[in-house]
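Slide 14.
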Amino acid sequence: MKAEIITIGDELLIGQTVDTNSAWMGQALSSLGFDIHRKTSVHDKREDILGILSDASSRSDVVLITGGLGPTSDDITKNTLCEFFNTKLVLDLRVLGMIESMMSKRGFPMNENNRKQAEVPESCTVLTNAAGTAPGMWFEKNGTVFVSMPGVPSEMKYIMNEHVIPALGKRFTSQVIVHKNIMTFGTPEARLAEILTDFEAGLPRCIKLAYLPSSGIIKLRLTATGDNREELLKLTGEQVCKLYETIPQFIYGEDEETLEMAVGRLLRDKNLTLCTAESCTGGNISHKITSVPGSSDYYRGSVIAYANDIKTSVLGVDPILIEREGAVSESVAAAMAEGARNLMKTDFAVATTGIAGPAGGTQLKPVGTIWIAVSRGSGTITEKHAFTTDRVTNITRFTYAALNLLRKQIIST
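Slide 15: predicted structure.
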């Protein structure tokens, strides 16, 4: 069964708003077995919306639409839908009551714009929205299902989870699609693909492998397609086991697990504590770590020693060491990690010192150079990397490299 996604809004086209709705809806549709063959963003213009709806009706079984359902004059989706489906707007008293109740709870007065949000195309099936004021709308035309939803992600997800996904699951009998993600770090994509040549050649015909790289992390996505879910899950599980046998040194987790989540899981399982000392990453490692719920169980704190005098006065790095070796050096990274671990009395400490760029590099230490150190009771290990000349990219890659070195040292404890 074919599905497509349409997002409506000038803000999407000019980059003021990032379209996260399409990605989420695509995953939801794929899990139901739909083939998502097109995603389109269009202007808040009547003729553009009518054109894409007409095109979609001739090529798709299901069309999901978000955007243009707000209370202001620039939101024209409902009127355009009425024109496309040859119907008119009517007041839905149930929706009106829900809007009045929501506005009352929030302490806001009702106005005419709010009341207009309770007007819906007469021919649609209304999908109530407890997460906002604009309802969803289900239409059918010439065998195609159209679902229009608000562009606010939380409202779209509510309507999808409460109404759309259950209804589509009952309505359509489709092929079974099983996805499994294996998360890797530590080798370039081209090298990983070379290592997995034989693995990929030996995959069952119903399973495909995709490489999805991002800032050094490579997600390996196995996609199995067929009619029997249990059989596909079994075959996919067998291939996952083969991946663990082939590239155990690069796999850090599964599905959507991040490196910071993997580090947290290991620390909690082993009842260990952690602190950080950051120079070139400027607190990004601690941000990643504390973004994981429950990180207070194992994370003590951080020293952002961006300036050399902070390295010496707070972390106890010998100023002669900095003068002799330079702030970006193996010995200073090690001293930072050891100083932080002694200061915060933790089992582990990870430290970074490097040159994020775009300036500050030398022939011996070009932009993108970083030294990482991980200190624990049995000693300190260091690692040097050389990345790009882009500052933002470097900080991200510095962070992941540090988390990965930390992860490997925790595993070896």
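Speaker note: The two ends are 50 Å apart (CA to CA).
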